[in-house]
């Protein structure tokens, strides 16, 4: 099979250097979201069911069909062949191409007109037929324009969404040998219709995909907004249908369920313009239905990925994806684009083809919230990342960095050296607003480099007196383990101290477990599960041995402990049970303040200003965690009201290592967020995850924005009743860890778990 797709790095540089791509895709995403949400609300009212109920009902239909796939293939084959069609089940892309080419050769067909077939893109049919002397002509307007430009579709439903009308006018002018006004879209569409008409009349075969294959009648259902598909299937003597075996559904009632969800999720329409159903061949003509495997059975048998076969190719996952808005589908995917492309490319093509785009995903989880068949795409992408890492496609710098991160002594020593360097930078005037004045490369100038404080969060807590309790205090007499989080402890120590003060204000005593470091999230997200296990074991050992609640100001760590640890230790029952004992008592700080450590409403001193707004951590928001609504918590405790913020739950662009591996993606997403913040008119932005604070603050400083960026714990702690004066800080020598480092070669070796069970 040919490899006509450019290498990932080439596609990436091309997309980030296109100045028109981001604004076009941003306008599209916002418009689609508004229209789609309105359509979903109307559907919920009409059906008296929630979107979640509707999509899970249809997902159950798809799951049932996949479990009994061979049975439904046999039923479909029997009914389709009884109606005059021929059904061919093929295992590979090469077999599918060879079959179509042989039918064309044997019938003397030199031109094939095509419509709506992603499978034909998957098997690179146009290129392969061209090599055999057969012209395959796209007849959907977007696909035809891309074919003329020698490009691939960049979206599952709107293939040319990345192109501007000026480019379309240029391509049409070259093909039809006349000039077009780029603002006269109706004229361009009419000319395209004229340009395609001759191909319909000369074609010996037509080829379409299928949105659904209905087993009970052997019918093919195709949903379109252009009438060309009906010409492609009715005029030529031969009709090919290329469809993945996952497109089977049992009944027409199931097809109706699909039609409730597909147009609303794809193009935000109540119903597409054309829904065409074909049962069997026309008299005197041929119909060949090709059922393609090409890795689909392997997907079905791999449990973490099998749900991806529910996909109905609506493209909604791309329509809400922040990185997609920055780089478009040619980069955020291989042939299949968007989040679903990050998953199925490994099975339809190769791990190598899937590797590059994996680093663009920021793990925000937005894709799962709009998927009309409830595919757990974020979890599946993490599983594919593990495959990429284990196959050796992860960058060396990433592997080395994670090995260093997994060694607490080394991590703390490096942070200590960074703190000393930051202190010297402050002395010589190389720091501004707690960020260094450094001459960064052009692709990194959009963010400033934060200075490292000399004292960690845990050191700040140990150096002060306890925070006075606010009466009534429901947590009175309790003891709480504070999990500081590795980045927050070293980069945002005041956040960690503020979290402790809020817990103490609720009447609880704060305990700082020795040897706490990192929950393993950075390595897990990167696909390095061996290193993630090492980090997780360290944290489990640091936190176990008691029944105290564990509270952290980092909701990302809560997600890691609750959702990722069971996956990490699925094959290690002893560690799985020890992990569960910890995760069962882990709380996000906001969850604690609204629950076990409930602070009374209005108990904090008003700051005297309502000029603040809130960015909600995307992962928590998209998982439906109530604690993500930090604006509601702050309003309850202070009586102050947040300023409205557009897109409060859209990712800020931090994405862990993504903002290092693909800084232009981090920049593009952050720029979108900072524009929304500027439009709010706030003086203070609060958010609830340390990574968001670091990222948003660094971007605001680099941009020159004047608003302050705080973790909400800092914002709330500043309004607590005043505590006694802090004791004198300990000497510098007691704050810094030893700087002796083990040999570099040892950093890259696999880490072994420690044997001690309790700290």
Describe it for me?
With 759 residues, this protein is an alpha/beta fold. It has three domains: 8-297, 3-Layer(aba) Sandwich (Rossmann fold); 305-392, Alpha-helical ferredoxin (Fumarate Reductase Iron-sulfur Protein, Chain B, domain 2, Orthogonal Bundle); 408-730, no CATH class. It is built from 37 helices and 20 strands. It has a six-stranded parallel beta sheet with strand order 1-10-7-4-2-3, with helices on both faces. It has a four-stranded mixed beta sheet with strand order 8-5-6-9, sandwiched between helices. A four-stranded parallel beta sheet has the order 15-14-16-17, sandwiched between helices. Helix 17 crosses helix 20, helix 27 crosses helix 29 (573-583) and helix 28 runs antiparallel to helix 29. The longest helix is centred in the N-terminal third of the chain and has 27 residues, at 21-47. The radius of gyration is 29 Å and the shape is elongated.
Topology, element by element:
Layout: H1 8-16, H2 21-47, H3 51-67, H4 69-82, E1 86-90, H5 93-106, E2 111-115, H6 118-122, H7 125-131, E3 135-138, H8 141-148, H9 165-176, H10 185-202, E4 205-208, E5 212-214, E6 219-224, H11 228-234, E7 238-244, E8 248-249, H12 252-266, E9 274-278, E10 286-292, H13 296-301, H14 303-306, H15 316-319, H16 322-327, H17 338-348, H18 351-358, H19 366-370, H20 377-390, H21 396-405, H22 408-427, E11 431-432, E12 435-436, E13 449-450, H23 457-462, E14 479-482, H24 486-491, H25 493-505, E15 509-511, H26 521-526, H27 529-543, E16 549-552, H28 555-568, H29 573-583, E17 586-588, H30 589-594, E18 612-615, H31 618-622, H32 630-638, H33 658-661, H34 663-680, E19 684-687, H35 690-703, E20 708-711, H36 712-717, H37 732-735
Parallel strand pairs: 1-10, 2-3, 2-4, 4-7, 5-8, 7-10, 14-15, 14-16, 16-17, 18-19, 19-20
Antiparallel strand pairs: 5-6, 6-9, 11-12, 12-13
Helix pairs in contact: 2-12, 3-12, 9-10, 17-18, 17-20, 18-20, 27-29, 28-29, 34-35
């Amino acid at each position: 099979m040919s490899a006509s797709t450019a290498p990932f790095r080439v596609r990436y540089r091309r997309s980030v250097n296109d100045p028109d791509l981001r604004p076009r895709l941003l306008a599209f995403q916002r418009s689609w979201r508004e229209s789609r949400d309105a359509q979903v609300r109307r559907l919920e009212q009409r059906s008296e069911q929630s979107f979640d109920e509707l999509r899970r009902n249809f997902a159950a239909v798809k799951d049932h069909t996949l479990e009994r796939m061979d049975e439904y293939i046999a039923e479909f084959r029997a009914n389709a062949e009884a109606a005059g069609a021929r059904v061919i089940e093929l295992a590979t892309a090469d077999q599918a191409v060879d079959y179509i080419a042989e039918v064309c050769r044997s019938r003397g067909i030199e031109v094939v007109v095509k419509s709506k077939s992603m499978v034909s893109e998957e098997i690179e049919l146009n290129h392969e037929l061209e090599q055999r002397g057969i012209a395959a002509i796209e007849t959907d307007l977007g696909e035809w324009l891309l074919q003329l430009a020698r490009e691939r579709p960049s979206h599952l439903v709107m293939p040319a969404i990345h192109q501007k009308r000026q480019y379309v006018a240029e391509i049409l002018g070259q093909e039809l040998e006349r000039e077009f006004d780029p603002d006269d879209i109706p004229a361009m569409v009419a000319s395209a219709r004229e340009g395609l008409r001759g191909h319909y009349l000369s074609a010996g075969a037509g080829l379409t995909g299928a949105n659904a294959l209905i087993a009970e009648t052997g019918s093919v259902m195709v949903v379109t907004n252009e009438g060309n598909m009906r010409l492609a299937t009715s005029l030529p003597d031969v009709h090919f249908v290329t469809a993945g075996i996952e497109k089977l559904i049992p009944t027409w009632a199931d097809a109706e369920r699909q039609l409730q969800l597909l147009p609303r999720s794809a193009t935000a329409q109540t119903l597409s313009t054309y829904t065409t159903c074909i049962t069997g061949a026309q008299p005197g003509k041929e119909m060949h239905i090709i059922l393609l495997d090409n890795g689909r059975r392997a997907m079905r048998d791999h449990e973490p990925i099998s749900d991806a076969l529910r996909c109905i190719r609506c493209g909604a996952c791309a329509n809400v994806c922040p990185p997609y808005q920055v780089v478009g589908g040619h980069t955020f995917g291989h042939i299949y684009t968007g989040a679903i492309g990050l998953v199925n490319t490994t099975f339809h093509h190769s791990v190598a083809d899937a590797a590059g785009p994996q680093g663009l995903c920021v793990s925000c989880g937005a894709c799962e919230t709009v998927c009309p068949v409830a595919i757990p795409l974020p979890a599946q992408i993490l599983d594919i990342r593990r495959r990429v890492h284990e196959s050796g496609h992860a960058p060396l710098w990433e592997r080395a960095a994670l090995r260093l991160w997994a060694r607490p002594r080394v991590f703390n020593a490096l942070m200590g050296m960074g703190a000393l360097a930051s202190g010297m930078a402050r002395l010589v005037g190389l720091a501004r607003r707690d960020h260094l004045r450094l001459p960064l490369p052009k692709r990194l100038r959009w963010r400033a480099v934060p200075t490292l404080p000399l004292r960690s969060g845990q050191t700040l807590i140990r150096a002060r007196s306890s925070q006075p309790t606010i009466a009534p205090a429901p947590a009175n007499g309790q003891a709480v383990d504070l999990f500081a989080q590795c980045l927050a402890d070293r980069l945002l120590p005041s956040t960690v101290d503020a979290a402790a003060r809020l817990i103490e204000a609720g009447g609880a005593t704060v305990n700082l477990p020795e040897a706490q470091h990192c929950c393993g999230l950075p390595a897990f997200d990167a696909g390095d599960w061996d290193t993630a296990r090492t980090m997780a074991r360290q944290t489990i050992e640091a936190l176990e041995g008691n029944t105290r609640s564990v509270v952290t100001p980092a909701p990302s760590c809560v997600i890691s402990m609750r959702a990722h640890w069971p996956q990490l230790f699925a094959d290690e029952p002893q560690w799985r049970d020890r992990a569960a004992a910890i995760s069962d008592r882990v709380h996000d700080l906001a969850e604690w303040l609204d629950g076990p450590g409930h602070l009374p409403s209005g108990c904090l001193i008003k700051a005297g200003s309502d000029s603040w707004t809130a960015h909600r951590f995307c992962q928590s928001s998209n998982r439906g965690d109530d604690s993500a609504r930090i604006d509601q918590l702050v309003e309850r405790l202070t009586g102050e009201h947040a300023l409205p913020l557009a897109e409060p739950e859209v990712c800020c662009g931090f994405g862990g290592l993504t903002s290092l591996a693909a800084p232009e993606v981090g920049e593009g997403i952050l720029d979108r967020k900072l524009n929304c913040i500027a439009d709010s008119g706030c003086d203070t932005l609060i958010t609830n995850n340390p990574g968001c604070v670091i990222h948003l603050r660094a971007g605001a400083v680099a941009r020159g924005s004047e608003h302050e960026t705080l973790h909400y714990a800092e914002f709330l702690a500043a309004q607590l009743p005043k505590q006694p004066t802090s004791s004198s800080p300990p000497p510098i020598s007691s704050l810094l860890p030893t700087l002796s480092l083990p040999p570099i070669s040892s950093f890259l070796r696999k880490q072994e778990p420690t044997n001690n069970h309790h700290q």
